[in-house]
Design goal:
Immunoglobulin-like; cilium; five-stranded mixed sheet; 2 helices; cell projection; 5 domains; mainly beta
Length: 569
């Protein structure tokens, strides 16, 4: 019995000594502030910081982890794992920075500590966000709807402070046609109070207008700037002249062309006035000037047009003599369209006159071997006027020639104009042919002159130029030629020469009677023939003869033999 008692006492002693040893090597967490950390009232856009320390009252190093805080709380330093030596402290700084109004609650959580008695430690965090809070009433878009052009409409929006501190900012003026009637500049609104801004729209013309009122430098931390959208639709009458109104401006806004007339002839032309707006259109159609020869047949005087309605106006031109004015003006005045209070219409009542058109206005034959004739180049004269055109002469006014040689340029006339004067009716044309045969080397110039009864262009000059080149042997050119390819399409023949040193190619066409009907030429090795004769008329289907002439880069010439060609479209 005594031996058993002694053994029990020995075991209990061993256990007690083990516990004392374990307690001597244990970490012990202690916070300098155990209760809730209250930051009190914090103004939005600012912050308040509080400090708390972790102390290790144990005999072993203290370890643990500090969890991330939820907004608006943050740890300035110390987030994550930590270690504190026995008897030491670990300082934490906690910040509350609210971005909105309201009470915020969170917790500082210290977890996974090696303190066997306190593995987790939690401290409640409290913060009350205060400050101004801007609200726009009734909405952040102001719609004026339809506003008559030339009048104004006012609309209000309200700035309300739903915060706990004074709301401050600046209201800036919008762009035209909007303006601020009330509320422009800085404001200071106590908590719970409102501030009224009055905006005006004055549309200068029809159309949709859109801009914003900007509210700047607001001391609301989460809304430092606000944009208030403004919408306004300008309505009113809108005058349109048909056909061909040129729109805004001083005019003329429309031109009425009576065409070519003779004394005593009556010509009437009409135009329409249409109201494309949303309000009644009013105005007055004045008597045209000069009167005569111009007068109003119908539609003149004061008028009122409902939206979408049209009014037809008929104007007359009647020349009494050939000396009457042929240009006049018709004015529509007193129009209640604010951006077009007046419309001007030009009246043209033209006397019938011829009008000459010459193409081309110049001819360059390019390089041509001295003493050899070039391909014929056509000059077309057309009467684009409204009266007969008389050609009093077409001749070479400048045409150099040498002592032993004839003139450089030659002119061929059409069959219908062998003697002058020649008459072209409106729309008719005549084709003249010009050919160059240089009598010396270098650039040689000349001039084709056309005289007519065109009142504006009685004389038309067509400059001519050719460059004479050296006489050269054709043997080199013949050796360089490789072949000729002819391809016919529906409306053209294409000639393509293969070989080296080809400077130009010309083709002369003859009918079965041996009469020359066309001649064309081109620089380079490619030529296109539109299958038209000297008069510009299409060649009929059938058999024709042609001769190809080649020109080398050195000026040498080779004239091929006569060959047959069948044209089938």
């Amino acid at each position: 019995m005594k031996r058993l008692l002694a053994c029990s006492i020995w075991v209990l002693s061993i256990l007690w000594m083990t516990q004392i040893t374990a307690a001597a090597n244990t970490a012990k967490i202690k916070l300098t502030m155990d209760g809730p950390i209250d930051f009190g009232d914090v103004l939005m856009g600012t912050f308040v910081e509080k400090s708390v320390s972790i102390r290790n009252d144990g005999s072993a190093p203290l370890t643990g982890t500090i969890n991330t805080l939820s907004a608006p709380f943050t740890l300035v330093g110390g987030e994550g794992p930590f270690t504190v030596k026995p008897g030491a402290t670990y300082a934490l700084t906690i910040r509350c920075a609210p971005t909105s109004i309201g009470t915020f609650r969170s917790a500082l959580e210290i977890v996974d500590t090696n303190d066997p008695d306190t593995p987790t430690k939690t401290i409640t965090l409290l913060c009350n966000g205060i400050g101004p809070e801007i609200t726009i009433l009734p909405s952040e878009a102001v719609n004026f709807g339809e506003v008559a052009v030339g009048s104004s409409a006012d609309r209000d929006f309200i700035i309300r402070n739903e915060g706990t501190d004074n709301l401050k900012g600046t209201v800036t003026a919008p762009s035209a046609p909007f303006s601020l009637v009330r509320g422009e500049g800085t404001f200071d609104i106590p908590a719970g109070r409102t501030y009224t801004v009055t905006v005006r729209c004055t549309p200068p013309n029809r159309g949709t207008f859109r801009t914003t009122v900007e509210i700047r430098n607001i001391n609301d931390a989460d809304e430092p700037n606000k944009s208030i959208i403004l919408n306004c639709v300008g309505i009113g009458p809108e005058i349109t002249l048909l056909p061909g109104d040129t729109g805004l401006g001083t005019g003329p806004h429309l031109t009425l062309d009576f065409g070519a007339t003779v004394p005593g002839q009556v010509m009437d032309v009409s135009f329409d006035i249409r109201n494309d707006g949303e309000r009644s259109l009013q105005g007055t159609i004045n008597t045209p000037t000069p009167a005569p020869p111009f007068s109003l047949v119908s539609g003149g005087g004061a008028f009122t047009l409902n939206p979408g309605a049209t009014r037809r106006v008929t104007v007359r031109c009647q020349l009494r003599t050939s000396r009457d004015a042929t240009t006049g003006t018709l004015t529509i005045a007193g129009i209640n369209d604010v951006d077009e209070p007046e419309k001007k219409i030009v009246l043209n009542c033209g006397r019938a006159v011829p009008d000459i058109d010459v193409t081309p206005l110049s001819i360059n034959f390019g390089n041509q071997r001295q003493g050899t004739p070039s391909a014929i180049q056509n000059v077309t004269i057309t009467n684009t006027g409204s009266a007969p055109l008389q050609l009093t002469n077409v001749y070479l006014s400048t045409n150099p020639s040498g002592f032993w040689s004839g003139p450089v340029f030659s002119l061929s006339r059409p069959e219908t104009c062998r003697r002058f004067p020649c008459t072209l009716m409106p729309g008719e044309s005549l084709v003249f042919g010009v050919q160059a045969k240089p009598n010396r080397l270098g650039v040689i110039t000349g001039n084709l002159r056309v005289l007519s009864n065109d009142p504006d262009e009685r004389t038309v000059d067509v400059p001519l130029q050719v460059t004479g080149t050296n006489t050269a042997s054709s043997s080199d050119l013949a050796a360089a030629l490789r072949g000729l390819e002819i391809r016919q399409t529906r409306n053209a023949l294409e000639f393509k020469v293969t070989g080296a040193g080809i400077a130009g190619v010309a083709v002369t066409f003859y009918d079965l009677r041996g009469q020359k009907i066309a001649e064309i030429s081109s620089e380079g090795s490619h030529l296109r023939f539109e299958m038209l004769d000297h008069h510009g008329r299409p060649l009929a289907n059938g058999v024709y003869f042609y001769i190809v002439t080649y020109q080398g880069a050195d000026g040498s010439i080779i004239r091929d033999r006569i060959q047959k060609l069948v044209i089938l479209r």
